[in-house]
Specification:
227 residues, 2 domains, six-stranded mixed β-sheet, alpha/beta, Arc Repressor Mutant, subunit A
Length: 227
């Protein structure tokens, strides 16, 4: 029998969200924020309680540090079962390896825990739309990861299709860690237009994440660590 969720809020079943967080304050703040955003949301205190629900019609999963299992292992198991299910991870500021691990495990986006209550609604909607929401402050650690990975061979990768000037500009802002909103402001275009550029970049470079796009862009000389 499915255990009752800890909290339920919102009324948009088409955008149903599951929050999995062991700490009650974190769970409550995330569920309330998503409810205020008019999203149908359920909160669970453990991976065990949430597993069967993830197999249902859930639209997105938000994962905060867990007690019963490692959050990265849970995230990986979720994305293996449903590779198209958007997952947003919430991590502590300064836990750089956790951020990289979450993205490598399949998270579509990642927010710092102190930014999550205010940014989670926009992040969920961006992830559902195919975007890759990230906290702005994650740029330095991604650049560090990119530099450390730059020596890896790209042998066997299909040739990248040329990017337009505007797509190059967007990729440069991605390398700096700017959000879609900030990129739109910088370029004088809408957030949806930025998302269109990002999808085109992913398709042309044959990548599936911001990290991969920036890494390949650096290898190809499209962007630099100073972009």
């Amino acid at each position: 029998m499915l255990r009752r969720p800890v909290l339920v809020a919102g009324n948009e079943a088409s955008a149903r969200v599951i929050v999995v967080a062991s700490a009650m304050p974190a769970k409550v703040s995330l569920v309330k924020a998503l409810g205020r955003g008019k999203l149908a949301v359920q909160g669970f205190a453990s991976a065990g309680e949430a597993r069967s629900e993830v197999d249902g019609s859930v639209a997105i999963v938000v994962v905060d540090p867990l007690v019963d299992v490692d959050a990265i292992d849970f995230l990986r198991s979720v994305t293996r079962k449903r590779s198209t299910l958007p997952v947003v991870a919430v991590v502590s500021r300064g836990d750089n390896q956790r951020v990289i691990a979450a993205i490598r495990a399949g998270a579509r986006g990642c927010l710092y825990v102190d930014e999550a209550p205010d940014g989670i609604v926009a992040a969920v909607r961006e992830a559902v739309d195919g975007g890759r929401p990230m906290s702005n402050g994650m740029a330095p650690l991604f650049l560090e990861h990119i530099r450390a990975s730059a020596r890896r061979s790209s042998v066997g990768r299909p040739a990248a299709r040329p990017l337009t000037e505007r797509e190059r500009a967007v990729l440069g802002h991605m390398a700096r860690g700017l959000s879609y909103e900030d990129t739109g402001i910088a370029l004088g275009v809408s957030v949806n237009t930025v998302r269109t550029y990002v999808r085109a970049i992913y398709e042309k470079l044959d990548v599936a994440s911001r990290t991969e796009a920036v890494l390949l862009g650096m290898k190809l000389g499209i962007v630099t660590s100073n972009s």
